[in-house]
Fold this sequence. Notes:
Elements: H1 5-12, E1 17-25, E2 28-35, E3 50-64, E4 67-79, E5 89-91, E6 97-98, E7 101-102, H2 103-114, H3 120-127, H4 131-146, E8 157-166, E9 175-182, E10 188-193, H5 197-206, H6 209-213, E11 217-220, H7 224-233, E12 238-241, H8 243-266, H9 275-278, H10 280-283, H11 292-305, H12 310-326, H13 330-347, H14 350-361, H15 363-367, H16 369-372, H17 377-392, H18 399-410
Helix pairs in contact: 2-4, 3-4, 4-18, 5-7, 8-12, 8-14, 12-13, 17-18
Amino acid sequence: MGDRSGDASALLGMEGFVVLSQTEEDGECWVLVETTRDVAGCPVCGVRATGHGRSEVQVRDLPMGGRPVRLVWRRRRWICLDPDCAGKSFTEETPEVEGCLTARAAKEICRRVGQDGHSVAQVARDMGISWAAAMGCVRRHGEPLVEDPGRITTTRALGIDEHKVLGAAEDHHTLYATSFVDVVTGQLLDVVRGRSADDVAYWLIQGTPSWRQRIEAVAIDPHAGYLKGILAALPDVVVTVDHFHAIKLANAVVDDVRRRTQQAALGHRGHKDDPLYRTRRLMTRGWERLSDHQRDRLFGALAEGDPTGEVAAAILGKELLREVYAARSLQQAHWRLVRFYGYVAEAEVPELTRLATTISRWEQEVLSFHVTGISTGPVEAQNLVTEKIRRIGHGFRNFENYRLRLLLHSGVQWETRPTARIRGRAPRLAA
């Protein structure tokens, strides 16, 4: 058989490298390679340098055939013969190698951490390198993707919400961050420290004027700081409080009234055999989602454990607020909201009065839901992804790493070639 080194070099797929030999040791492929370049100029003075032997350096490459690959690179050393040059000697460099890794291995580490959401520690173990080396690949190849101005295009509707980054400890309070999500595409635009008006306004102002002008609506939870920050940067935008957060407040009122009632009647918090406690999940469920049997259970529990009728009043108030969001037009929503206010005034339940006060303060944003039709659903979905990434990483103390990981996973459009199916409806080749 003839020399097959050319085939091996083509299989290696690294431009400017040739394969000299390949062995297997302890289940790992060792590939001896060297570069074909025989002319080099001194990086200091530019004079043509002279070869001065080679030294071997080990470089980690992508796995092959389920086995780890270690490239042994016979790296050329050069000497500058110009007596006036300060650079006496140097070793060759190639864009195919980045430190202890090949460039393609470094990019794959970034992709696995970013697109696949793997932990840096796991990828480092798989590649046989340190955590610092793996994280360096993520920063080196991930930061240009995150900071690319073309990553964020036109945004018509924006969603803003907070999430917890780090729990309270002896040296700090609970640390929060604010996520900005395009609610049309679901793309995570950015994550910033804090949850104040200044944090929101500062981030929005960083956007180009043309980008800000195209934002028509913003969905938030009832957070006065967020509203103030949004209007400071986008004075003409329509702000919406969606049904998720408003009904969440109403459900909290039902729970508060139930706890107060059972404490007054029984003298203790709810036990599993208490009538109101047994049906607490049914109280916060939509009335149309209850079966006849569940409604009978709820009526029986209220008859037994709600002598004042305040729990039933809170449930009805919650349903009236749900009807506001279920309205088919802005005018219908307005009249249903008036009916909600009237009912709360007659019920005279303190918790319901507090809810009505909050809704009245946010009335314009509640009604604008019927104008924009947007919600913070994509933001809440991103919060679940954020929690998953934080769990995989076992928590984060470095906010810059935290932001980079989230944006690489949810804010970057990865250009990866899909793998063709080998068993399809119309196979390309048939025996």
